Amino acid sequence: MTQGPTKGPTQGSGSFALSGGADPRQPQPEWDSPVAQARDEIASHLGVSAEELYFLGDGPLAHTLALAGLAPRERWVSAIERSELLAQATKTLPVSPTGHLLECEMGPSTYSLGWVNGEIGTIQGIDSWGARIHQSAGLLHSDLSSGLGILPTPHEWDSASIDARAFGGPTLGIMALKSRTRWTNPLPTLSPSFGQFHVDQRMVIEAAVALKRYSALAATHYERISAFNRALRARCAAIGNIDIAGDPAGIPHIITFSVLYAQGEELVRAFALEGFHVASGSACMSTNLEPSHVLSATGKLTHGNVRLTIAYDEPDDSLNRFLEILPSIVEGVRQS
Q1: Predicted TM-score of the model (pTM)
Q2: CA-to-CA distance for 115 and 239, rounded, in angstroms?
């Protein structure tokens, strides 16, 4: 919501087992250069070494490759993951009404389970699920985008992916591969030499600056945004016939609710007329107004939904005004 402001790959095969080293054939930044410092900053948030990071053209590409490059086993993907991950699924794993992964049999498969869902804010226990998956000789990919810089980062994953736009960064994808992880480049004909940097390195600096700022803002304003989250849930309950998605104990800046007897497009327009930019439909589809597979998987209404992604420095006046106008906007759209 806004108002106003390995050693290296084998040539040709694209296959390599990472052992904490980047491709030696590609130029690497000096240890004390701005790019190296930026890489270190991002690595520190993830709890990995800088050599375990790879920078790609955008988030969807990072998500796709991080999962596709893991061992060619069955891929079991949570039903509320991004569309580029679900496209790789051999089995879709069901979730609870709050979006938590339901108990399921573990095996030597490759799993994809996001940490914080970018549409409903539910937080998955990645470390506990990861431990169980590893005990079953499985592998885990996790999308870490929506919690990075806000919450302590989980570590029981084998590959991870991040869309830098989630923390206000540029159009940049970040892939992290643990040094123990065997990963095969799924696009060897396009990039037989898979080095760390597949983008202008200045974008890595920009991403590090954005992540550092975002983390500081979240630390300062987390409780304030949490209070707004609670107040919004209470206001929706008072209005009635509004279905709030996700876990109330989820991350506070992401809220999605569905309004019965209203169209999502009309709600988006009504809020826009008041200066608030909200979204509707699926958070990961190219056209936002497509029905949300996340809401469908959790048993929520897929029409009349509104998704807020609140900046941690959103002023109180703006938040309070949103609460004030919500009843009249809902009533107006319902009557239209």
Answers
A1: 0.86
A2: 31
- Domains parsed from the chain with CATH numbers: 6-214 (3.40.640.10), 221-335 (3.90.1150.10)
Give alpha helix (H) positions in the chain.
34-46, 59-68, 83-86, 126-135, 201-239, 264-273, 293-297, 316-335
| Amino acid present at 160 | A
- CA dist 5 → 89, 146, 252, 276 (Å): 39, 21, 20, 10
DSSP 262: S
Cβ atoms of 45 and 150 closer than 8 Å: no
- Bridge partners of residue 197, in order along the sequence: 55
Here the tokens at position 94 are 């069901």
Q: Are 174 and 55 in contact (CB under 8 A)?
A: yes
User: What local confidence, expressed as pLDDT, does residue 72 receive?
Assistant: 80
Question: Which candidate, 281, 274, 249, 296, places its Cα nearest to that of 123?
Answer: 249
Least confident of 92-101, 203-212, 297-306: 297-306
Q: Which two tokens stand for residue 246?
A: 């996700």
**How is residue 200 written in tokens?**
């202008």
